[in-house]
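Lab notebook, design round three. We kept the backbone fixed and only want residue identities now. Task for the bench partner: fill in a sequence for the structure below.
Input structure tokens:
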């Protein structure tokens, strides 16, 4: 079951510059997110934890990622909204039955947990991720 909005991912061109701006404005130190944290390769980011919500700044390390394509087409801004679940497999299947179109045929798993992405065309131009964090 979807529990809450986990966070928002913001696509940025200059990660280091964006980190400094967010650090100064929010007064929060970020957690750096290396490429193995992401479901797709060639991404890098930083997470600013604000209570139970996370603002993640993400940038692309190559020109062929969805983040790079987003930046080229739309510029910097909100890239996706992350929905936390306690059972990604079940929720993705239920949403598919209800007509949602997902980017991946199978959920991606890694050090981050389990995730799949609802295609932006399925929900009025906004990409959502169904995210089950790794158990700590």
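Proposed sequence:
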């Amino acid at each position: 079951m979807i529990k809450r909005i986990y966070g928002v991912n913001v696509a940025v061109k200059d990660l280091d510059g964006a980190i400094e701006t967010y650090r100064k404005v929010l007064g929060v130190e970020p957690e750096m997110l290396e490429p193995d944290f992401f479901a797709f390769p060639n991404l890098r980011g930083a997470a600013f934890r604000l209570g139970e919500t996370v603002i993640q700044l993400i940038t692309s390390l190559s020109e062929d990622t969805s983040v790079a394509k987003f930046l080229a087409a739309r510029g910097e801004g909100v890239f996706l909204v992350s929905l936390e679940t306690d059972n990604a497999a079940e929720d993705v299947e239920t949403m598919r039955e209800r007509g949602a179109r997902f980017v991946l045929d199978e959920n991606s798993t890694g050090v981050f947990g389990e995730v799949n992405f609802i295609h932006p065309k399925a929900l009025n131009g906004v990409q959502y991720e169904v995210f089950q964090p790794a158990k700590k």
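Keep this in mind before ordering anything: The first strand starts at residue 2 and ends at 11.
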